[in-house]
């Protein structure tokens, strides 16, 4: 490689490294703002700004979904397996909303620790499988849990 | 011999001849892979346990998103080669990739949005994955605009190569955004070190479609590069000869 070409390679590598470090620092500085949602434990620990519009994400606790008599208002609990927050929402829930599913709610935390959501989004996980496989997996997990052999 | 091959390929005249012979094969392979992928994806593959049939849009969305990253890396890599070794053909491949890459990025964003409305409950959110992919689209558009803004082809190629190389930083950010930050977008299904979290009956059409998109890219980039080569070399003897023989 001629010296001229080698210098160009070095220059490209230096530019990449420089831009990489700069972007890395910038992303580090904005880390908090790049988080799309808070987890329930962060909210309980007071890390989320109180009274402001925030997003909270977690799994819908099994058996916690309650429909109010008006038919549109739903109350449910979301958890990150550390802490739990109760969420109240009036409106149409997305297709993927169900117990055990991850969701993200945007709204405000009231004084009574009730999170009033203006919007509820379902977070899809990365698993794709046919219904029969899901059923079989669930059955084998339950069997495994029964014998204390859960993986 | 290997070295010799690359020297030959870098000559526009030789490239024009070889790529002309390659095009029909690529076209046939693309059609076969696309038809097989679509048939397996839309007819044979079972519905998803949670999403039903709506998940099938991923057979377009996921390969398009992969291509948007892959083409960017090819474009920046070819740009860097052109910058260092001043190989004209590398410059041609680099700029010919930009429009295809922008189209795939746009396709990934649009199909994701169409899927997001019924599944997530929103067309668009400003989470890290969606935002960084949108920045990728702007990078592609910026590169195309910059190339068109400079009349001299060689100067234009150098300027766009530098912009493309700087933008490479965005590629790992897009890929790891779902792991580094909380996002609405789900984590990786196939491109991770674990076994893919997708059933084999759904993975096969996905990979077939990914292959089809790769072939499509190869096809289109060769066609575009051939036009670009002819335009750049229009004053040379072999292009004039070619024009006369037609």
Describe the structure.
The complex is a heterodimer of chains A (151) and B (246). A five-stranded mixed barrel of chain A has the order 1-3-4-6-5. The relative contact order of chain A is 0.12. Chain A is built from four helices and six strands, in the order αααββββββα. Chain A is extended and about 80 Å long. In chain A, a hairpin with a 4-residue loop joins strand 3 (73-79) and strand 4 (84-90). Chain A has 151 residues and is α+β, with helices and mostly antiparallel strands. The model of chain A is unreliable at 146-151 (pLDDT under 50). Chain A has a domain at 36-123: OB fold (Dihydrolipoamide Acetyltransferase, E2P). Chain A is 34% helix and 27% strand. With 246 residues, chain B is mainly alpha-helical. Chain B has one domain. Chain B has helices at 2-9, 12-44, 58-85, 88-119, 128-149, 153-167, 170-180, 200-232, 237-245. The model of chain B has no long low-confidence stretch (mean pLDDT 91).
Relevant terms:
heterodimer, A: 151 residues, alpha+beta, OB fold (Dihydrolipoamide Acetyltransferase, E2P), five-stranded mixed barrel, 4 helices, 6 strands, 34% helix, extended, disordered C terminus, B: 246 residues, mainly alpha
Number of strands of chain A: 6
The CATH architecture of the domain at 36-123 in chain A comes to Beta Barrel
Summarize the biggest pleated sheet of chain B.
none
Q: How many domains comprise the coordinates of chain B?
A: 1
* CATH topological fold name of the domain at 36-123 in chain A: OB fold (Dihydrolipoamide Acetyltransferase, E2P)
CATH class category of the domain at 36-123 in chain A: Mainly Beta
Of all chain pairs, the largest interface belongs to: A-B, 41 and 41 residues
Total of helices of chain A: 4
The biggest sheet of chain A amounts to: 5 strands, mixed, barrel
Overall SS class of chain B:
mainly alpha
How many angstroms does the end-to-end distance of chain B come to? 33 Å
The SS-based structural class of chain A is alpha+beta
Taking all Cα atoms into account, the compactness measure Rg of chain B is: 20 Å
Estimate the global geometry of chain A from the Cα principal axes.
extended
Number-wise, the strands of chain B total 0
